[in-house]
Amino acid sequence: MAIEVRIPTILRTYTDGAKSVNGEGATVADLFKDLESRFTGIEQRLVEDDKLRRFVNVYLNDEDVRFLEGISTPLKDGDSVTILPAVAGGAVAGGMR
C-alpha cells in the first residue's frame, strides 16, 4: 500500500530534504509509525499523547483528519497525506488596521 506524504519545509531535516515520501499504514497513526521507522524523530514532532500536536495539521486527500477520525483515520492505497504546521498571526504595531 503506497501513500504519498507531503512534508513541510520545517520537517524536511528528518527526510533528508525530501518534499514528499511514500509511506504505508492502515491508519494515520500507523503511517506515522512507518515514517518514524525510517525518519527517526519525526513522529514526536507530529503526535503527543496519541493525538495530533496542537500546531500540526494533517490532511487526507485535502480533508482535515481532525474532522474525520484523527490519527485513527483509515488510509487506503493511493491516498495523499499532507502535513502542515499551523500558522498563527501576530499583532500589528499600534493596534488593528
Automatic annotation (TrEMBL):
InterPro entries to which the protein is assigned, alphabetical: Beta-grasp_dom_sf (IPR012675), Mopterin_synth/thiamin_S_b (IPR016155), Sulfur_Carrier/Prot_Modifier (IPR052045), ThiS/MoaD-like (IPR003749)
Gene3D superfamilies (UniProt xref): 3.10.20.30
Superkingdom in the source lineage: Bacteria
Cross-referenced PANTHER family: SULFUR CARRIER PROTEIN CYSO, SULFUR CARRIER PROTEIN SLR0821-RELATED
Name assigned to this protein: MoaD/ThiS family protein
Lineage start: Bacteria, Bacillati, Actinomycetota, Actinomycetes, Kitasatosporales
